[in-house]
Amino acid sequence: DPFQLDALIQYVDSHQDEYVETLRDWVAVESDSSDVLKRAELEHMMDITAEKLRKMGGKVELVDIGDQELSDGTKIPLPKVVTAQFGSDSSKRTVCIYGHVDVQPAKKEDGWATDPYNLTEINGNLYGRGASDNKAPVLAWIHAVEAYQALNMELPVNVKYILEGMEETGSNGLDAMISQHNHTFFSDVDYIIISDCGWLSRKPALTYGTRGNCYFLAEVEGPKQDLHSGVFGGTVFEPMTDLIGILDTLIDSSGKILIPGINEAVAALTEEEMKLYEGIEFDLESYQRKIGVDRLMYSSKADLLAHRWRYPTVSIHGIEGAFSAPGTKTVIPAKVIAKFSIRQVPDMDPLLVEKQVSDHLNAEFAKRNSPNKLKVTMVIGAKPWVADLKDSLYEAGKRAVKTVLGADPDMIREGGTIPIARTFQDVTGKRIIMLPIGGFDDGLHSQNEKMSRYNYIEGTKLFVAYLHEVAQVWKVVI
Ligand SMILES: C[C@H](N)C(=O)N[C@@H](Cc1c[nH]cn1)C(=O)O
Ligand SMILES: [Zn+2]
Ligand SMILES: [Zn+2]
Predict the structure, then answer these.
(1) What is the CA angle 339-340-342, rounded to 5?
(2) What is the pTM of this model?
(3) N or C: which end of the chain has fewer CB within 10 A?
(4) DSSP structure class, residue 424
């Protein structure tokens, strides 16, 4: 049965409008995992996903992964995880595709040019929340299998899916689920494939590393209730002033992390890595232009990539309880909660980072001699992940990219986090490849997120070809 890639490619091309319509249906579901009020939508998204795979004849399960504990101590069910299986031929390799169908929050008034939940095509780009992160890539993997089925072509490998709905909030409950199913669902899996990241430039890429993330809440509590800043200002220790004071001790203006112990844990950058970075296609000027800033923190490509991918950083995301509405309310907020995260790299350890951050903030807070109360909590502790660049899974990836996209992919890392990648590696021991199809300018987590029709459709073809290539990969690294 010779592999008929041309027929599969033709099939994908002629069904592209249907693929776009399915993406439209998926984007219309506001599956925001960070907002508990949207939990019904998220559950609906998991049901739609399961139904799509069931209709294709997959052996599908919606796996209960327990409850999520909210900040007030109440519990709500976590969205079920969708697992599916196509084929169980023991003479074939088995791949397991991981993805997520939850999204980051989005509101039109955040500055979107279009309704974020109404997929809108403009100049070949499909705009909508979750289009690139991660709904189109998940659908592309589903459509890749569907194409083989439609043409009555035998799948070259058994295909499993594990699709979750909590990735954007740290994949709550998934670690435990993987451990529980390690000797059942994962027992016959040879390789895990993840397409939850993007290219670095217009050139296709394969991703061999992700940063981890430690996400913190720092709460400062003072008076019983908010106070008039004229009537009480000058007489009380203000929680917001305390909070801003300690936040300012996390990182300096040059990007140096000031928390003792963090920088010491970072694995040294090797000559080999620097050389690899220098050969990667990446234009600093267009990156800068795209972001809309006057100056970047580093002026050489290798330094910039290193700080994007393999050095830690601190980002301050927001302050709950702070006055942020338009207008000039003159209030002293009684309780404020800062949200910040530290992207982590090898050889940092989230448990150690938790202690380092907590000790540091408590020591800085003590210096202020304030009667207010500080509480520091780490709510996400996701580890970084790195693959062996020489793994034959990547050689298969290079062949598929060359065949479908006519280019040699750049070998890149991802600055973002795929919290479950490291668990897959540590718990299942399976080899992992990250095969991105998102564009460099897709605006993940941002306003006007998009997936280009080109990347969506060519990406589907790439996945079709990869299923063929991966069928020939040796089970042991050679
Ligand atoms: C890279 C991936 N598409 C993604 O966006 N992941 C999130 C996961 C996360 C980490 N902490 C909280 N959520 C990210 O990198 O922000
Ligand atoms: Zn994602
Ligand atoms: Zn994301």
Answers:
(1) 155
(2) 0.95
(3) N
(4) I
Proximal ligand: closest to the CA of 415? 1
Candidates 215, 211, 167; CA nearest to 354 is 215
Under 8 Å between Cβ of 437 and 459: yes
CB 372 within 8 A of CB 220: yes
Strand 431-434, strand 191-194: pairing: parallel
- DSSP-derived 3-state class of residue 85: strand
Q: Which ligand is nearest to the CA of 105?
A: 3
To test the pocket of ligand 1, the residue of 417, 442, 445 to mutate (highest count of ligand atoms within 8 Å of its CB) is 417
Q: Give the whole-angstrom CA distance, residue 234 versus residue 237.
A: 8
Q: In what order do the strands lie in the sheet with 125-127?
A: 120-122, 125-127, 450-452
Which residues contact ligand 1 via a Cβ below 6 A? 133-134, 167-168, 170, 196-197, 213, 215, 380, 382, 414, 416-419, 444
CB contact burial 303-322 (16+ within 10 A = b; e otherwise):
bbbbbbbbbbbbebeebebe
Residue 257: CB atoms within 10 A of its CB come to: 18
Q: How far is the CA of 167 from the centre of ligand 1 (A)?
A: 7
What band does 31 get if pLDDT is binned at 50, 70 and 90?
A: very high
Both structure tokens of 380: 């996400």
Residue 227, φ and ψ in degrees, nearest 5: -125, 155
Question: Which residue among 344, 418, 423, 440 has the greatest number of ligand 1 atoms within 8 angstroms of its CB, and so is best to mutate?
Answer: 418
What does the pLDDT average to over 86-101? Answer: 97
Instruction: Note whether 429 and 110 are within 8 A (CB).
Output: no
Q: Is 171 exposed, middle or buried (0-12, 13-18, 19+ CB in 10 A)?
A: buried
Q: Residue 277 carries which side chain, given as an amino acid letter?
A: Y
CB of 443 closer than 8 Å to CB of 202: no
Q: Which atom of ligand 1 is nearest to the CA of 414?
A: 1
Beta strands in 222-311 (DSSP E): 227-228
The residue type at 234: G
What separation in angstroms does the CA of 476 have from each of 41, 157, 391?
Answer: 42, 16, 9
Beta strands in 42-116, from DSSP E residues, in sequence order: 59-63, 67-69, 75-77, 81-86, 94-100
Name the residue among 168, 167, 26, 46 with its Cα closest to residue 105.
Answer: 168
pLDDT confidence band for 474 (50 / 70 / 90): confident
Smallest Cα–Cα separation from 457: which of 28, 48, 126, 114? 126
Distance CA 110, CA 188 (A): 45
pLDDT at residue 478 in the model: 46
Polymer length in residues for the chain? 478
What integer is the mean pLDDT of 86-90?
A: 97
Residue 3's pLDDT band, with cuts at 50, 70 and 90, is confident
SS3 at position 193: strand
